[in-house]
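In response to reviewer comment 3 from the previous cycle, which asked for concrete evidence that the modeling workflow produces usable outputs, we include below a single protein chain processed end to end. The sequence was submitted unchanged, and the resulting structure tokens are shown without manual editing.
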Amino acid sequence: MKINLFFFISRFTYGGAGNAIFTFLNNLDHKKFNIHIFFIGNSEYEKILPSYVKCYKLKIKFRFFKTFFCFFEIKKILLDNLKKSKKNIFISNIHYSNVLSILFLKKIKSLKIILFERTSIKELDIFENIPSYVKKKIVKLLIGATYPRADKVLTNSKTLSLELKDYNINSSVVYSGSIKKLQKFNKNKKKKYFNFIAVGRLVAQKDYFTLLKAINLLNYKNFILNIFGSGELKNEISKFIKENKLNKYVKLKGHEKNKDKIYKKADLLIHTAIFEGLPNVIVEAMNYGVPVIAADSPGGTKEILDSGKYGQLFKPYNHENLAKNIENFIINPERLNRKILKSKQILKKFTHKNTTKSLEKILINI
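The workflow returned the following structure tokens.
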């Protein structure tokens, strides 16, 4: 008998969480599961999902607190679709949605709830304004009260599981399926001109201004930096590039689906995010044999790079420290190239097949 499986993510858009869920939707065995996905508004993934995945596009009229108000509709749809004779599982993603899932849905007896934490809890200590501060403080307080009521709590890294342990919350790790298959590593040739890349949404979390400030400090000019991603800070980033006369060295490439185009000719990935869950782009770069310099920020970055064994870590927000690390790579790329070669042994746990298998086992046994 098939298990009814309902995923929920408020914004089903390009990014780490969206990519991870899209991978599960594509790879879960639809002979074992009836698969559904709830999301608010439009989704870049909707048209490319398998036909067996049923989508519920939630249209919320309210400008603020959309995720809160969408749960009234989610609860109604669930009550109309739950099969008492079957196992019904609801998988929420990311802390704000997770808290609301328990508050709205826990009393539904025929529904099991899995909370999937995909970003560092320490992100709740970072805020942009007073409303953001209030919202994040409330969510942080509610995590300790709501997460233990879930049937299962999952994280995408051991680091996040340790963070939840501080709240006396036990969880299991299911890594994101960052890579479809293992790539053959190309031996890095000596180069006089380097292709640097940064990959991720153009949002505050990714801290592109630290990257651009570091680029502006470099004494060596034998490189180009291609930034792959789209987002709300595009105009501000473009303005910074223009004002600092970096147009010759920095190119905004927009969102790119083709991984080969991003990584195959890349010589170095620079990742400046101030917090993460498990950064898919670092795993993807490693899979193509691309060396990595990344911020030692809250989340799974340090875990993936094994505290610097497989790449170089720098202090978050510190553009001078980052610039020094980039220059060290330009002078002597072999050091990081050797590190990335060592990483091949750990990449299997991030494949679509292995991560989906881990999730399926939990879903069947819950």
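The mean pLDDT is 94. We consider this sufficient to address the reviewer's concern, and the full set will be provided in the supplementary archive.
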